């Protein structure tokens, strides 16, 4: 099968699970004997122009912008798979494209200008009925000006969003995400749940259970931004227990200064995905404190499972849903205090020898690239045959 993936790559200096997924899908399809080609735009190139902010805003509002149709016609794919068009591809071409088209809903942007369904630490769907709420609350990049184009683009509701309206099949990456889209009127028959996967290659050395008992160390990987919950995690983090934070973001410097007196808290900065994959197996466990619902389990969670690393996750996020469903660690409440968090961490450390092979088995059954490719091919066939 020949598949054309359409994707606007996010900035390379900001960790992006969407970018990783697209690249992994190309490799996985090729390994399975299929042809996959990415038709791309990228923020690194386009944002060098002084007029870029205005161009991007106009594209978001009007749908007029770079059009992949000519390249797609030359490729003549069996199916087009749209991942991310924001903000560098136009959307008007979608209505004109005649072939089978599948889209992955990596976030909630057709419902929420911020893409997170989160405001002030709480689940928010105000924009479902009043999209201009995003402008009033500065939901995108903490700016009314930046929020305006997205608010205008979502004013017709999720079902009229160009990607949602056109796709023959819509891939949600979790049951939670599928439920959010069904709740705003997206037809259940077009929604298919296919979790993202990560390849097995590039995983580093895994420490023994004894090493974790003697010298436990925990890991956080993600953007250092408010919705990721790093601040709340560190405020409750048990004294003396080592944790490394991998990532950068708008509150990174603030967090580093606020917790400089805690030698057990180390800020390692941003790392390429390959380096993170090589490191994760050395840790006792991964901590996922995200405050927002997330469209599905983050790739860092899946990478941890692939390395046999259990997870402590805060209730309400995509990793926590999976931890609760598959027993890959412990879920703690959003209001968990330091002592309760310490108990959860200790429980995972104590049970790590049992949890590690179970986490690996969950990865192989649900998140391996082999299972992923088969699920994608099934969706492509459904889209092709109606």
From TrEMBL:
Residues 17-200 form the Glycosyltransferase subfamily 4-like N-terminal domain. Its EC number is 2.4.-.-. GO terms for molecular function: glycosyltransferase activity. Keywords: Glycosyltransferase, Transferase. It holds the Pfam family Glyco_transf_4. It is an enzyme of class 2 (transferase). This is Glycosyltransferase family 4 protein. It comes from Actinomycetospora atypica. The lineage of its organism: Bacteria, Bacillati, Actinomycetota, Actinomycetes, Pseudonocardiales.
């Amino acid at each position: 099968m020949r598949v054309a993936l359409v994707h606007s790559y996010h900035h390379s200096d900001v960790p992006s699970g969407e970018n990783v997924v697209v690249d992994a899908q190309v490799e996985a399809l090729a390994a399975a004997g299929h042809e996959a080609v990415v038709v791309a735009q990228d923020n690194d190139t386009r944002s060098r122009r002084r007029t870029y902010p205005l161009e991007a805003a106009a594209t978001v509002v009007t749908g007029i912008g770079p059009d992949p149709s000519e390249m797609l016609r030359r490729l003549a794919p069996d199916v087009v798979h749209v991942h991310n068009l924001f903000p560098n591809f136009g959307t008007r071409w979608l209505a004109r494209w005649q072939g089978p088209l599948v889209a992955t809903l990596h976030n909630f942007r057709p419902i929420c200008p911020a893409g997170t369904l989160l405001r002030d630490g709480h689940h928010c769907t105000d924009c479902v009925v009043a999209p201009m709420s995003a402008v009033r609350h500065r939901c995108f990049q903490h700016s009314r000006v930046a929020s305006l184009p997205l608010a205008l683009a979502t004013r017709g509701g999720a079902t009229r969003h160009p990607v949602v309206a056109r796709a023959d099949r819509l891939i949600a990456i979790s049951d939670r995400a599928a439920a959010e889209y069904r709740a705003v009127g997206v037809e259940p028959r077009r929604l298919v749940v296919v979790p993202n996967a990560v390849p097995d290659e590039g995983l580093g050395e895994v420490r023994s259970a004894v090493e974790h008992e003697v010298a436990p160390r925990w890991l956080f990987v993600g953007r250092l931004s408010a919705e990721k919950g790093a601040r709340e995690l560190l405020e409750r983090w048990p004294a003396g227990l080592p944790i490394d934070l991998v990532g950068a973001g708008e509150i990174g410097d603030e967090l580093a200064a606020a917790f400089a007196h805690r030698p057990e808290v180390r800020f390692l900065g941003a790392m390429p995905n390959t380096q993170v994959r090589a490191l994760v197996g050395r840790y006792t466990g991964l901590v996922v404190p995200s405050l927002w619902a997330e469209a599905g389990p983050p790739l860092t969670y899946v990478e941890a499972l692939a390395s046999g690393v259990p997870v402590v996750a805060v209730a309400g996020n995509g990793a926590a849903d999976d931890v609760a469903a598959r027993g890959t660690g412990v879920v703690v409440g959003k209001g968990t205090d330091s002592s309760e968090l310490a108990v959860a961490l200790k429980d995972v450390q104590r049970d790590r020898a049992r949890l590690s092979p179970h986490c690996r088995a969950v990865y192989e059954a649900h998140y391996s690239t082999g299972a992923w490719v088969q699920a994608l091919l099934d969706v492509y066939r459904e889209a092709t045959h109606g």
